[in-house]
Amino acid sequence: MKPDYPYRNKNVPNSAPVSIRQEIIPFVPSQLTDCQKNRESVIGVFLSALRVPATTDKSSNFATETIITMKQKKILALAFLGLLGLTESPAQNHTNDSLMEKLTLTTEWDKTFPQSDKVSHCKVTFCNRYGITLAADLYKPKGATGPLPAIAVSGPFGAVKEQASGLYAQTLAERGFLTLAFDPSFTGESGGQPRSVASPDINTEDFCAAVDYLSTRGEVDPERIGILGICGWGGMAVNAAAVDTRIKATVAATMYDMSRVNANGYFDEADNADARYDMRRQLNAQRTEDYRNGTYELAGGLPDSVPAEAPQYVKDYFAYYKTERGYHKRSLNSNGGWNKTSALSFINMPILTYAGEIRNAVLLVHGEKAHSRYFSEDTFKKLKGDNKALLIVPGANHTDLYDNFEKIPFDKIEAFYREHLE
């Protein structure tokens, strides 16, 4: 059956922009962190140990001398705590929004899907622990009250929040969840330099930073937060679930294991030391050339046309990223692609090493006809516990799960989150 795409991409030149509200909300803790509480407690104990004498002397000279002595001893205590790692440096204190990178965010509705009248939408920013400011779209069901379950969404790999992740986020918001679709570091409207680079560590952290942000919003129940990753960000989501115990439920849709595909090639056809050595040699030569030129050469996105003999999955990607259906001007896959040297860290750092230690719920969703199906099937073999599930969608290819409402199993995804974000 031909997929039904009932909407029209609004990124075409003659489209009329829809004005939206913009909301920039820095991370501002409402109370002392555990680190700060521990610090104040230990300072008190330390000062007590110094046996600072109490006095009732009212003379100004003695009073001044006592105050100076107290300050000196508190400074000494802080120095002591610094050696123990119990103090916080200014760079770690995100109470000042001046530490946030000032991003330029569009005020137009420039998504590849129509805006829903069932949810409210605004743009927000937040920082990850590497100091990179991320841009996101926040979707909230209209009329919703009380602490809500929340879901952070990102992907596909090389896409932006105006594409599939935003579609998932808005649809789940229509179903009662507060959702956050974000651009990963170095891409889209998010910050970070250089541009168009990927990292197994930093991009996993992006999901955890989204959980930081959601956990501090008043309308979110911090005990009911999930994440959803699409394509390459499906693997990042599973990796984030392995490290972040706050993530109560994880969905990976049409996932890629980006470490595996970079190190071994598609279908593991280059899974040998000689092939990896040759790839490392080429990529390190590219590093030298990039440094010499002062720029980062791009690998290129999807071509402007595909030959008849191209693999079907390349044709499927083209049909999404290079046509009115899914093209976006900020999407790497729609345009110049990733930096060539992005592959280096993935070759050297497997992202799913501890997937078997995830205790919270995981749902892997993949298309029956997808070339990438083996990533979900093999990842599922690593997972342990009766709260893990693999759902194969009959007849669906990889990109069907980007935007095809006839194939994306939203009912089952919603039921999964309802069960595990109780």
State the gist of this model.
The chain is of the alpha/beta class and 422 residues long.
Could you walk me through the main structural features you see in this protein, from its secondary elements to its overall organization?
This protein is α/β, with parallel strands linked by helices. The protein is 36% helix and 14% strand. It contains 12 helices and 8 strands. An 8-stranded mixed beta sheet has the order 1-2-4-3-5-6-7-8, with helices on both faces. Helix 1 crosses helix 2 (60-84) and helix 4 packs across helix 5 (232-243). The longest helix has 25 residues, at 60-84. The chain is globular, with a radius of gyration of 25 Å.
* Side-by-side strand order of the widest sheet: 1-2-4-3-5-6-7-8
Shape by Cα distribution: globular
Helix content: 25-40%
Quote the average pLDDT.
84
Helical stretch tally: 12
User: What is the gyration radius calculated from CA atoms?
Assistant: 25 Å
The arrangement of helices and strands along the chain is: HHEEEHEHEHEHHHHEHEHH
Biggest sheet, in brief?
8 strands, mixed
- Taking pLDDT < 50 over at least 5 consecutive residues as the criterion, the unreliable ranges are 1-96
What's the count of strands? 8
Key words describing this protein structure:
422 residues; alpha/beta; eight-stranded mixed sheet; 36% helix; globular; disordered N terminus
Furnish the topology, listing elements before pairings.
Layout: H1 34-50, H2 60-84, E1 119-127, E2 133-141, E3 148-154, H3 164-174, E4 178-182, H4 200-215, E5 220-230, H5 232-243, E6 249-253, H6 258-264, H7 273-293, H8 312-321, H9 343-348, E7 361-367, H10 373-382, E8 388-393, H11 400-403, H12 410-420
Parallel strand pairs: 3-4, 3-5, 5-6, 6-7, 7-8
Antiparallel strand pairs: 1-2, 2-4
Helix pairs in contact: 1-2, 4-5
